[in-house]
Amino acid sequence: MLPPEVWLSPWVLGVLGLAIGSFLNVVIHRLPQLLERDWLGDAAGYLQDEAAMTRVLGDRPARTAELARQGEALAADVAALPAMSLSKPRSRCPQCGHTLAWHENIPLLGWLRLGGKCAGCGTRISARYPIVEALTGALFAAAAVQAGPTAAAAVYCAALALLVAAAFIDLDTTLLPDDLTLPLIGLGLVAAWQRWIPVTLADAALGAFFGYFSLWFVAWTYKLVRGVQGMAEGDFKLLAGLGALLGWQALPAIILLSSAVGAAVGVFMIVARGHGRNVPIPFGPYLAGGGVCALFFGQQLQGLLP
User: Fold this and answer.
1) pTM of the predicted protein model
2) pLDDT surpasses 70 at 306
3) Residue 2 confidence class, pLDDT cut points 50, 70, 90
4) Which of 29, 88, 102, 248 is deepest in the core (most CB within 10 A)?
């Protein structure tokens, strides 16, 4: 068997990161659709719940029957959708349906070999696919350099994969799925408990607690003052996960860095791009970026704080 110095080396983890990045592209594209299908199915069932409709709307038989018919139609629409999971069907061109061959799915090289175009119809393939793969590979290699051939390197790679997927899904849909944020919290707590990372279990638990409730308090205050929801619960859970992974000491740097970058980008989009002030701007990518910076430059960032 090869020693950890080989398996957890920057080169090996970097190549593994490229492969994981290819899978993350699938997660980023399909996970929101799978979740929204489930939510629509739940909504369809709720509309058909006569007792629930009566409790909410009162005794209005005609309206309850109308909602039940709409629920049945919605349930039929969801049931008619083609089967989908994270593993099936195989990746294909959304324009012509061409199923990608194995060599077209090779991270980075497949996209370059195709010239960024579908082999079936010539439709342009977004450059974001190789960007996600290259980014994940680079982050995995950096984690190996940061932690050395230790369990911490594997923990950080798992956390970075969750952060990459969460950031891009939030960027696309303004959703931060529990399927990604809750495992990040659990990963940080278990890794601290098992002493796989240089964070005590007490610091990880406090990081999760203060990470969640610091943003919850900000959102609650904003809603109290402005009367609108300024931040979603997914952001609370993402910061809780970062706090569990890095300890409560990293939270001020993460919050300040993500808030500064988010504010600058928000102002730019409003002023230069005409982005509507009432259109939400996802905060998850900035939190994830702040967390990555804290992971690799935590001591330097904490040294800059008063």
Assistant:
1) 0.92
2) no
3) confident
4) 248
